[in-house]
């Protein structure tokens, strides 16, 4: 994989933003998309984007890219480590199938009183790929949403891409990943030195398009009419309204709330960048699938998601090459001086 040094080029690059949605193991789809982009182009994605924003599983992907991992390495994380994180390591034969059914039932019962999964396993697997890297080690700007349940406010991990962002660069990437992925009922709230009881950023920004566009327009002061944004979802579906909604429709209602947030985030990005009909540089990739076909903690259909990600990348490559993979970007220089002192 070619690593490009944008500082050695004379070209002036447009600002480019990559965003990745939350979705648990469905993150295999955007991971495969990115892996295919890099395989076809021979370029690292991180070398072509000035800002990468990701929520939950998308936050893990964003942190992986910023840490210098290739798309193929991140995809391997989902394939080889995802089943263990969600207690679904593969087995063969009738006995393995029966054990799988029993484990799923036990997890559903456990979920009534506590988190469905153990975050320590996720910590171990994240540590194996991210090591001891901190946010200050990121190769490009990153924005990782979480939710501060202890104080009832938003919590966003950021690189030191503005002079007032003087704290998060010290935070280990593993801690940020555990916080943004702490989905209620699936994983426990995450605490570390400096923050307590953080929840999954999907509580308010499962689709981080709007967050990233606002970061570019306000904190970074970019001319958003000249910016370009590639947004990768973890699949989408249409959930028609129901005439009567009761307790048995809670799952449908939660999905509808996520859909509403997704549409609002998309609309915010469109308002800041311009409508796709007038600005062809706003691209959203989130294949539509039947409702409930994929679950965020079901490893049994990851192969389907990976094929979907690769095929969508191949179809989109002409536009992506033209808009985003331009052979480099302007160098990212953190604003916080301590980031240089400790390197």
UniProtKB/TrEMBL annotation:
The keyword Metal-binding does not apply. InterPro entries: Acyl_Trfase/lysoPLipase, PNPLA_dom. A motif (DGA/G) lies at residues 200-202. Keywords: Hydrolase, Lipid degradation, Lipid metabolism. Signal peptide: none annotated. CDD domains: Pat17_PNPLA8_PNPLA9_like. The keyword Lipid metabolism applies. One of its GO terms (biological process) is lipid catabolic process. A motif (GXGXXG) lies at residues 22-27. The active site is at residues 56, 200. A motif (GXSXG) lies at residues 54-58. This is Patatin. It comes from Croceicoccus ponticola.
